[in-house]
Amino acid sequence: MNFVHFIELLFILMILILVGLPLFGKYSGKRLFSDPDANLEEYKHLQVRKEEVLLSIKELEFDFKTDKLSQVDYDEMRAKLEREAVGILERMDGLEKLGRKTKKSAAQVST
Amino acid sequence: MNDLGEFALQLAFATTLYGCVCYIMAARGNRIDLYLSADKTPLLVWGFVMVASICLWKAFLTNDFSVEYVWAYSNTQQNFFYKFASFWGGQKGSLLFWTLILTSYMAVVHYQNRTRNLMLVPYAMTVMLVMTLFFLGLLNFSTNPFERIPLPPEDGRGLNPLLQNYWMVIHPPTLYFGYVGFTVPFAFAIAALITKNLDDGWIRLTRKWALISWFFLAMGNLFGAQWAYVELGWGGYWAWDPVENAAFMPLIVATAYLHSVMIQEKKDMMKVWNMSLILLTFVMTIFGTFITRSGLIQSVHTFDEATLGFIFLGFLVVIVAFCVFLIVKRLPLLKGKNELDSFLSRESSFLFNNLVLLGIGFATFWGTVFPILSEAVRGVKITVGPPFYNQVNVPIGLALLALIGIGPIIAWRRATFSNLRKSFLKPLTVMLVAGVALFPMVPLSSKSEIYTYITFMLCAFVVTTIVIEFYKGSKARMSLHGGTFIQELGSLVWRNKRRYGGYTVHLGVVLIFAGIAGSSSYSVETQKHIQKGETIEIADFELLYNGLGVTEQSNIKTRVIATLDVLKNGKKIWVSHPEKEFYKEQNQPVSEVSLLSTWKEDLYVILADFNPDDESATFKIHVNPMVSWLWYGQWIMAFGTIICMWPDRQEQRRRLERMKKQQAIFVAAQE
Predict the structure, then answer these.
(1) Do the Cβ atoms of B662 and A44 come within 8 Å?
(2) CB < 8 Å from B in window 70-109 of A
(3) Is B30 helix (H, G, I), strand (E, B) or coil?
(4) What is the rounded average pLDDT of the residues B384-389?
(5) Alpha carbon distance B133, B137 (integer Å)
(6) Which one of B4, B268, B667, B671 makes the best mutation probe of the A interface by having the most chain A beta carbons within 10 Å?
(7) Tell me, what's the pLDDT at B311?
(8) Is B656 part of the contact surface with chain A (CB cutoff 8 Å)?
(9) Which of A2, A32, A57, A78 to probe by mutation at the B interface, max B CB count within 10 Å?
(10) Residues of B (310-349) whose Cβ lies below 8 Å from A
(11) For residue B576, what is the enclosing H or E element?
(12) Which of A37, A66, B62, B591 to pair with B109, CA 20 to 30 A apart?
């Protein structure tokens, strides 16, 4: 067996160990991710939307200050964005309540 | 070592195959053990491909001509840099190089996402591994870079002389970094389609990847233009060659994508459009490799042994079919809930920008494939040359340039005519003043000159809008925060890197437009056969020919160098040394251009022919105005892109806060 063959053997052993060990370790049979929680997914989406709407309000102000918008348009768009933001926040509140409730009952079940 | 390289490629193939299967099983069966097992494969595959690459580099650097690929693209006299770069000089090595970049990107993606996005990542990694598998399949079963020659020759054939230029070390890797980089957003887009996670999560995850890939692709295109300019010796930098087009098309589609994703992020709409654009960008990168390697198109860029056409075509068809199937299947989920607030808004200008960019992309695509289609259908190959592209793309390009200026002026969501009038007043005034000032100076006798005149006016318009944006923004911040103009300008850019980095990129694009316009319309050229002591006059220059010199450079080549004194207004300003190089074992001599480049114009001298007996010579001389504007524009673009890519701490903080809140409220939250 020459040096190259020895290295090739090492490579094969390395693959077998690195790839094989997790299959027989403590994680065997465990789940990769919990079942998708529709509320959590919606909440995540709303968190991002909330940030985007707040950023849009800031941008609207900036556009107004730099003379790109008329007062009428600014007021109208701002009111629209604020309504959107309020809608998002209300829905998030609802989801938070649901989430907390579910978490509490899950904790009670586990104890 | 060659055996080891070959073996490493075989192991990489087997490991990739295992990774694909294991990731899919982990995701579908929701099994962490399988995921942890598959999770090792990206790094293992990268390691094996790296070993194979090191082995090939070693073969080049040690002149191991028993390897057929080394013999074909190197020789003992080649210097270190060209031996190093010969790695990607031919088809086999370039495929290995592509695989090396792909697996390196894959390793980085794996590291970034090792504990998050566990629903998307297995599918995204599978897509990347499938791409890797395709290239490793080619390397193992079709184009083995370690193929041996039974009786090794003493010396190799050497790298094509046209490729023996320092750009060979820079241009192909840059382009490949761009091409391959789009695999990452593509993989996450496919993962999002499969897992139905169709909000803008995948866009945010891959935003930097798309930007980095776009950056490399843009730089790669411009580096290629510089290389063509200094090496090919025809006086130009872009010839609408099919392979140039192949690199240009993904850049154009990716540019459209980078603009339209902003609308999805802001307004949660245009999901189908953005998804289609990123898939199309990736398809275009594979189409580019198909063009280069199919053997269907003759170009200075195609590989000598381009024989993989049908394999790439098949792969391309499978990818397109799979993408179309997924999009159609998920169409109901991709429908946006929001609509445009107004036709007169920045969103609309972005949509127009997208249409214009895709128009350029389609015209370029059509011109590229038309010769292939005409040959396949009618048996006659019809060449589509620069006149077609210029006729179609120049007017569309002008519309694009105008939109670059119009976009920043219009407010997001809604604008009114009265505000637009106010916003447009100054830029339009500057544009008209520029038009009036230039009118007596520029000739307007041809269509091309009229287009150039319009381009210059539009450049003035766009630059003014951008300058006003920076100025007004800084002033608005000054009134809010009370800092100095410079402080607020810095903070304006720092707090809105994406927007103002983008404007900086636009400034670079304006310079590129101006450079293209000036150099295409106002170039002059002459060709003359003269004796020693005679002169050639062109534009403001007078070139006095002083004779030829011959230099033997080691055993590789013989250089024939002409010397010309360059005079401007009777004053000697430079000595030009155009050359002809004769490489051993190569039939065709190579011209080395002698170039005097200033911001105003380039003096471009080529030694076209010579007579060694009487030292008479034929020179081809071009005076190309404003070419350097392209290269300045390139660096400004690079600077702007770096601003856009700079890590945003606020965004990172927001992401962590989001996760914290999710964990506090929900069971087993993860992002």
Answers:
(1) yes
(2) 70, 72-73, 76-77, 80, 96, 99-100, 102-103, 106
(3) coil
(4) 88
(5) 6
(6) B667
(7) 87
(8) no
(9) A32
(10) 341
(11) strand B571-576
(12) A37
Report the candidate in B228, B241, B248, B226 with the shortest Cα–Cα distance to residue B634: B226
Whether B666 sits inside 8 A of A12 (CB atoms) is no
Least Cα distance to B158 among B230, B89, B91, B232 occurs for: B89
Q: How far apart are CA B608 and CA B595, in angstroms?
A: 15
Residue B262 tokens, joined: 């902003």
Report if pTM > 0.80.
yes
Phi, psi of B429 (to 5 degrees): -65, -45
Place of tokens 């094996």: B48
- Distance from C-alpha of B282 to C-alpha of B542, rounded to nearest angstrom: 50
Q: What is the mean pLDDT of residues A97-106?
A: 81
Question: From the centroid of its chain, how far is CA B275?
Answer: 21
Q: Which residue, B52, B142, B58, is CA-closest to B100? A: B52
B60, with CB counted inside 10 A (0-12, 13-18, 19+), is: buried
Question: In sequence order, which ranges of A1-111 are alpha helices (DSSP H)?
Answer: 3-24, 38-65, 71-110
d(CA A64, CA B362): 38
Confidence at B671, pLDDT banded by 50, 70, 90: very low
Banded pLDDT at B588 (limits 50, 70, 90): confident
Tokens at B376, concatenated: 């396949």
For residue B132, which of B18, B277, B301 has the smallest C-alpha distance?
Answer: B18
- Asked if B16 and B45 count as a contact pair (C-beta separation under 8 A), the reply is yes
Minimal C-alpha gap between A6 and chain B (Å): 10
Closest CA to B277 of B182, B213, B191: B182
Average pLDDT, chain B: 90
The model's pLDDT over B397-428, given as tens digits with 9 standing for 90+, comes to 999 999 999 988 888 777 777 778 888 899 99
User: CA-to-CA distance for B571 and B77, rounded, in angstroms?
Assistant: 41
Q: Is B75 helix (H, G, I), strand (E, B) or coil?
A: coil
User: The tokens of A101 are what?
Assistant: 């409730």
What does the alpha-carbon distance between residue B234 and residue B231 come to, in Å, rounded to a whole number? 9
Q: How many residues does chain B have?
A: 671
Cα separation, B308 vs B291, whole angstroms: 10
Give the other-Cβ count within 10 Å of B293's Cβ. Answer: 22
Contact status of A8 with chain B (Cβ, < 8 Å): yes
CA distances from B464 to B194, B408, B415, B429, B468 (A): 46, 11, 20, 10, 6
| pLDDT of B450 above 70 | yes
Q: Find all residues with CB under 8 Å of B16, minimum gap 6, and list them.
A: B41, B45, B129, B132, B133, B136
